[in-house]
Amino acid sequence: MNTDHQHSSNRFYKFIIYILLIALAIIIIVPVGWAFLASIKQDAEFYGSPWALPEGIHLQNFTDAWQKAKMGSYMLNSVITTAIALSLLLVIALPAAYVLARYKFKGSTFWNMLFMAGLFININYIVVPIFLMLNNGDKSMRSILGQPIFLNNLFILALVYAAMALPFTIYLLSGYFKTLPKEYEEAASVDGAGYFRTMVQVIMPMAKPSIVTVILFNFLSFWNEYIISMTLLTKPGLRTLPVGLMNLMAAQKSAVQYGQMYAGLVLVMLPTLLLYILVQKKLTQGMTMGGLKG
Amino acid sequence: MDNRKGRGRFIFFCLAPAVILFIIFLIIPTIDVFRMSLYKWGGYTDHKTFVGLQNFTKLFQSEKFYQTFQNSVLLIVVVSIVTFAFALLFASMLSREKLIGQNFFRIIFYIPNILSIVVISAIFSAIYDPNNGLLNAFLNLFRSASSDPILWLGDQKIVIYSLCGAMVWQAIGYYMVMYMASMANIPESLYESAELEGASRRHQFFAITIPLIWTNIRTTLTFFIISTINMSFLFVMAMTGGGPDGATEVFLSYMYKEAYTNSSYGYGMAIGVVVFLFSFALAAVLNAVTRREHLEY
User: Fold this and answer.
1) Per-residue confidence (pLDDT) for residue B232, from 0 to 100
2) Which residue, among B129, B172, B275, B286, has the nearest Cα to A24 in the 3D structure?
3) What is the mean pLDDT of residues A18-35?
4) Which UniProt keywords apply (chain B) (predicted)?
5) Which domain holds residue B244?
6) For residue A287, what pLDDT band results from cuts at 50, 70 and 90?
7) Which CATH architecture fits A39-290?
C-alpha cells in the first residue's frame, strides 16, 4: 500500500519535471527558431501576427543583406579577423604556456603570477585606453609615414583579440602541460632532440585535445565580439559581422526592412550554431575543464 | 655551457611574444585607467591637467551616477538570484533523475551561450516590440486586444526587467552545465543511503547536493557579479543604448559614453576605477559571508 502510494507520487514528480524541462526548452528554442522563420518572411508579413508562419520562402532577404547591407563583405572581415587572431593566439600562447608550465628559470614564478593576474583584467574597462593608445600611435604615424596604420586595421584588431585571450588560454594550456610526466623531455633529450624539436614534435601532438578546446572557445568569442571591433574599426565600410548586424538593427528602426535584418542575424549565428551542433560535447566538457570564462 | 645558453635562449623566444603583447594591450591600458582617473583630459588633445581626486568627488555628486549605480545593483541582484535558482534547479533535475532526452535538454539549454549578444539583443527586441512583438501578441490571447500595448523597452519602469529577462535567458545554460559538472562528482551511494532512510528529494537536495557543491557555488557567485556587470554593458549597448532617459544606463555603458562619446576621458576612467573597486569589494564580502567548513565525500 505504502509503496504503491510512493510509486504514484514518484510518477507525478517525474511528470512535473518533464513539464518544467520542456517549458524551458520551448522558451529557448522558440525565439531562435522564430528568427530563422522571420528571415524568410516578406516585409509586409511583419505587420500581421508575429506568430504566423512565413507565407513562402523569401530568399531575397539574404541577397539584400549580403549585397545591399554589405553583410557579405563584413562576413569576409570577420573570417579574416577570426582566422588571424586564432593563428596568432596559438603561435604565441602555446610556447609561452609550455615554458611557463615546465621550465624553472629566473622570474618564472613572477611571470606565472602575472599571467594569472591577467585573468582578472576585464576587456570592457580597457577598450577606451587601447583606442586612445592606437589613436596616438596613428598621429605619430601620420607624420612619419603620411598615413595612419593602427586603427581600421583588421590585423591590429586580430592582435588585440589574441592579446585579450592570452591569460585564459595560457592558464588552460599550462594546466594541461603540468600534468605530463617529466620523462617525455628526458627521453627526447637522450634521443638528441633540441628544446624546440621536443616542444613541437613531442609535446604539441599530445596537447591536441586542449588545443581543440582553446580553438573552439576563442572562435566563439572572437566571432561574436563587437565592443572592441566597434571601437577600433571606425570606417563605415570596415566592420565585422556583429557590428554590421547592430547597424542593421539601427537602420531597421527608420526604414522598415525587417526581413533583411533577420537574414543578417541568421548569417551571424549560423556558423556558431553549426559548429555547436558538430562539437557540442567537446564544448560543454571543455567548459568545465577550464572552469571559468568571462 | 652551450646547452645552458641554448636553454635560456629557448625560454626567451617562447615567452617574449606573449609577454610583449600582454604588456602592451593589457598591463599598460590597465595602469592607464588608474592613472588617467586623476587627470582632467578630453582624450584627443595634448592638454592634460592633474586634478587629484576631483573626478571622484564630481562622480559622487552626480545624480546620473546614482541612477547608474541603482540600475547596475538591481541587475546584479535580480539576474544573479533568478539565474542561480533556475540553473541549480534544472541542473539537479537533469543530473539526479533518469530522464528520456537528458542529453537533448542539456544541448538545448546551452545554445544561448554560443550566440553573440548582438544576436540575442536583436531577437529580444523583436520579442519586446510593442506592436508586432511576440510577447504582446502572446499576451493578447489573454487580455482584450484593444488595451494599450505594453512598452517593454519603452517604459522606464519596465525596461530594466525586460533587460533582466534577456540576461537570465542567456545565462541559465552556462551555470547549469557548470553545476551539473560538480554534481556529477557526488557519489551515488550518498543518495542511496539517504533514500533508504526515507529522506525526501527536497531533503536530499538541501542536505547532500547543496553542501557538496558549495565550493563551486561560491566560485560562481563571484562570476555572477563580474559577468553581470559585463553582460549588462553588452546588452545595453546593443539593445537599449541606456534609454529611455537613462533607465537602463549601467556602470560600464556610462563609463564608455563618458570616456569615448563625451570625451571626458579622465572622468570616464574614474568611473571605471570605482566600478572595479566596487565589484572587487562585493566579491570579497560575498566570499567571506559564504565561507563554510569544507566537506569531503
Assistant:
1) 93
2) B172
3) 93
4) Cell membrane, Membrane, Transmembrane, Transmembrane helix, Transport
5) 37-289
6) low
7) Orthogonal Bundle (1.10)
DSSP state of B218: H
Q: Which 149-168 residues of chain A touch chain B by CB within 8 A?
A: 159-160, 162-164, 166-167
Measured between alpha carbons, how far is A128 from B268 in angstroms, rounded to an integer? 9
Is position B139 within any domain? yes
Q: Is A105 helix (H, G, I), strand (E, B) or coil?
A: coil
Which residue from A134, A190, A161, A20 is spatially nearest to A77, judged by alpha carbons? A161
Cβ contact A61:A48 at 8 Å: no
Q: For position A284, what pLDDT does the model report?
A: 67
Of B17-31, B39-53, B158-172, the least confident: B39-53
Q: Tell the burial category of A105 from Cβ atoms under 10 Å away from its Cβ (0-12, 13-18, 19+).
A: middle
Nearest C-alpha neighbor of A178 from the set A104, A231, A233, A228: A104
In DSSP terms, B50 is beta-bridged to: B39
Instruction: Tally the domains of chain B.
Output: 1
Angle at B159 between CA B156 and CA B163, to 5 degrees: 155
Q: Is residue B128 part of a domain?
A: yes
Contacts of residue A260, defined as CB under 8 A and 6 or more positions apart, other chains included, come to A61, A64, A65, A68, A69, A248, A252
Residue in A closest to B131 by C-alpha: A47
Phi and psi of B49, rounded to 5°?
A: -125, 135
Residue A279 burial by Cβ neighbours in a 10 Å radius (0-12, 13-18, 19+): middle
Q: Which of residues 115-134 of A touch B (CB under 8 A)?
A: 115, 118, 121-122, 124-133
Question: Which residues, other chains included, contact A262 with Cβ-Cβ below 8 Å and sequence gap of 6+?
Answer: A35, A38, A39, A41, A61, B122, B126
**Assigned domain for B180 exists:** yes
Amino acid at A255: A
Number of Cβ within 10 Å of residue B216's Cβ equals 16
In whole angstroms, what is the distance from residue B124 CA to residue A33 CA? Answer: 13
Q: For residue A35, what is its C-alpha cell? A: 528568427
Nearest to B11 among A48, A105, A291 (CB): A105
B19 within some domain: no
